[in-house]
Fold this sequence. Notes:
Rossmann fold, 5-stranded parallel sheet, 5 helices
Amino acid sequence: MQAPSILIASADLTCSSALAAAARKSGLAVITASNAANCLAASRDQAIRLYLLDLQLPQLPLETLVSELRAAQPLAQIVAFGPHVQSERLKAARASGCDQVLTRGQFFERLEELVGRSAGAGESESPS
């Protein structure tokens, strides 16, 4: 396993760039995946603390993907985000078992908070 990471499944450079800036401040690595297969491959090889799933990514099989990510990294948080006008897709993300489902606006508003929580997650996992 590698150093703790955040994985973003998105083809949107704006999302990836914003995440990279926030992660740099917290000392977490960022992995970008362009499809479900890349997400799953990274989840087997990396210590993922946070998955960010862009609901605009074509052919993202949410229910299956969330289930497999959960099996690979049970302690990781899974957050899906997408346009507020895609209410059915947001509803499907909630039904698939994501920890949080955000609109794109909420994603950008809360990104630093999400990353900060992920950076602190390792501290609570260590034995006292």
